Amino acid sequence: MPLPPRRAHESPVRECTLGRGLYAIVDVTSLARRGLDPVAFTRAVLVARPAALQIRAKDLAASDVLALLLAVSGMCRDAGVPLVANDHVDLAGLAACAYIHVGQTDLSVPDARRRAPHTRVGVSTHTAEQLAAALEARPDYVAYGPVFATSSKSNPDPCVGLDGLALASVHAARFGVPLVAIGGVTLERAPALRKWATASAAIHALLPPRESSSYAEVTDRAVALHEALLGPGAGAQRPVSSA
């Protein structure tokens, strides 16, 4: 399915600040379990024009991660969607990623910036203490959660709930840092999440039903979730249907 044409006022990549709505995560391990191709999955998600798209490939060799990033970077650029590399700081620059995402056991935000000075840096946090420390480093966005129970990690941190997300939103706003909600993001929870988070990250909510491998279903789910996270009257673009 080809991407719908970019609107005239849209820049090639929205790199200034993280946009609102869906932060789509293409988790290669989850896709492999379902027999889904990550490049085709990325193409299907990009029709929704999410706020960002992250490639998460924990089980791939660095060379395979780079090949995947290069395969989707042009698609993201054409869609005007910032591409995010998970963990691989050195590969982010080679693939012209807009962002690098680091976790609590990866490089610090200052170290990541020194390694990739032309790439923006986002960071995951899971406690109030981690959030406070991350905000002091002024990342380009901070992710916080899990807000709800999640199956995307084998040993997830305790849930922070909507109350925890609300407090995180207040702290992030003081530093002028966009907040990304992580953990258990679904279409039904989108109205509550958009109240406190700039964007919300989703993995499993984008997957088609287990009995299906339809990429059209992936697009429908991405569009619906992005629009729900933007909220009524936010001007989400409904993609043009094409064969």
Describe the structure.
With 243 residues, the protein is α/β, with parallel strands linked by helices. It has a domain of 150 residues: TIM Barrel (Alpha-Beta Barrel), CATH 3.20.20. The chain is built from nine helices and eight strands. The chain has an eight-stranded parallel beta barrel with strand order 1-2-3-4-5-6-7-8, surrounded by seven helices. α7 links the parallel β6 and β7. α2 packs parallel to α3, α2 crosses α9 and α6 runs parallel beside α7. It is globular and about 40 Å long. The C terminus is likely disordered.
Low-confidence sequence ranges? 5-15, 236-243
Average the pLDDT over all residues and give the rounded result. 90
Residue share in helix: 25-40%
* Number of alpha- plus pi-helical segments: 9
Give the percentage of residues in beta strands: 15-25%
CATH architecture of the domain at 21-121 and 182-230: Alpha-Beta Barrel
Major sheet attributes = 8 strands, parallel, barrel
The CATH class designation of the domain at 21-121 and 182-230 is Alpha Beta
Order of helices and strands: EHHEHEHEHEHEHEHEH
Radius of gyration: 17 Å
Short description:
By secondary structure, this protein is of the alpha/beta class.
